[in-house]
Each structure stands twice: as C-alpha cells, then as structure tokens.
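Run GSCFA domain-containing protein through structure prediction, thanks.
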Amino acid sequence: MKFRTVVEINESRKKISIEDCIFSIGSCFATEMHEKFSQGQIQSLNNPFGTIFNPFSIFQAIQQIYDAKEYQENDLILANENYISLDHHSSFDSRYAHKSLDKINQNIEEANQFLQNTNFVIITFGTSYIYEFLPQNRLVANCHKIPQKFFEKRFLSHQELTDSINKTIELLKDICKDDVQILFTVSPVRHTKDGLVENQLSKSKLLTAIHESISGKENCSYLPVYEILMDDLRDYRFYKDDLIHPNSQAVQYIWEKFGNAYFSDETKIFINENNKILTALNHNTNDDKNPKYQAFLDKINQKKIEQQKKVKHKIF
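Sure, done. The structure for GSCFA domain-containing protein is below.
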C-alpha cells in the first residue's frame, strides 16, 4: 500500500560539476538553495538585488546586471529617513545615499562578472502580484513599508508574465556560458497575506506562464519544488512554526532530490565530504589545548587541504 504521493525531479543530462558556477535569484527558496551550495563549497551567487518575488522585477534585475547599470542618487528615493531603491530589497536601505549606492553598485558589478562564468541559473518565482509606485508611475520590486496609498497592487497579466520570463531567458543566454541551464521553480511558500484563494491563483498564473515560456527550449527546465512540498510532503510537520515556510527537514529532502537529478557522482562526493568537514568544525570543546583535540584539528585541516586540491576556487 502507498501512503504518500512521491514527486520526482527528472534526471538532467547535464550534471553540475565541482567547478561550476551557480547563480540563483528570486524568493527565499533561492536563498535556501544558495546556502546548500555554499556549504558544499560550490561557487554560488544569490540575489544581488535581495529577495525578489515576481517575474517582472526579476527580469528588471537581470537587465540591470546585464547592462552593468551604475545607480545614481536620483535612482533612490528618501522615505522613512532612509535612501531607498524600489528595485531592491530593504536590506539595501541606508540613512546615507552613498552607502546604499556603494552596496547596490558593488553587487551589480560582482553579479555581472559572475554571470559570465555561470553554468546553471536557478530562478524561483514567489508571486504574480506586483505593486505600481503611483508618484513615479512604475512597477517596483519592494514597497519598503511606504504607506499603501502610494501604491496600486495588481496581478501581472499573462502577457507580462511570459514576456518577463522570455526576456530573462534571452538575457541569460547572452551573458552566461553557451551551454547555460536555466532552472525555473515556483516557491512553495504561500503568501497568506494576499489570501489563500488569491495565493493559489497567483501560483497558478506563474505555473502556466513558466510552462508556456520554456516549452521547446532545451536549455530551460522546470523543477517541481512547489509540487514536492504540496503533494509529496503534504503534512504540517514539514513546515516551520509559522506553517508557511518549509522547515530544514523539507529543504534537505528537496535538496537531496535535486542533487540526485543534477549532481555528477564527483559532485555528490565533494559536497558530502565538505559537509562532514563543516560538521566537524562546528564541534565544541571545553579544552582546546587538549592533545586529542589538536590531533582532531590536524586531521580536519588535512581533509580541507585534500578537498582544496580538487578545485581551483578557494574553499573554506
């Protein structure tokens, strides 16, 4: 008898190697994946504009990175005593314009260079909703807790969604390596503040737009992350206390399924060994002068040296 619905990720013909660069952008699930890659010492860059949720804003971010845009003070607004970019997450806000601009422009430059060497891109869409900033009559990525009277909230149309996705693909194919693989996912995090019915409609619009946009494109794939959590892990024990975000157990389950489908055998071993080293490094002792503990550290350092010999980029 079966007591659950197992959702599989189709095995990729192109595997992620230990020297590949992985770029991720989008909702917080993109960050979860980035953290797993980083722990495994795989080259990874995530969300240079901060967490972004909708396809239009993600396309705009990729466009700015592609153009190597340099933000100026007139690209910011002053609100709540902070200089703010409506294209960015609130983590870029600062009381001083030059500090916001320095962080924004440094991230864009770094992302532009990284994308030119990128082999895999993971894009995670969270919502079809977007906000228009009425004083400037433009669509924005983040409201930064500015009063709602300055914004109009609406769904992106199907045409806007597919145009954003297709233009994103075109930009990435041009700036990344020739054989770049672009992996699309829909975040399993429910946007309950929009309403449960509205959230489901929002996710449905994303799913329809993604599948239409990537149909027939050999370098584009859909990862059923949303379906894994909704159907395979259909139980609240796989959620954090807020009952919205997947917990560490769920993220690990999805990560392992992704790895089985996309990692080369060498990459699986490399990541597994590096995770063991990280676990060992987190070991606490009451006596760091103890000869046995020093011998333990020497053994770990030797393993780090052996792992470093396998790749050109610096690890640990």
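The two ends are 46 Å apart (CA to CA).
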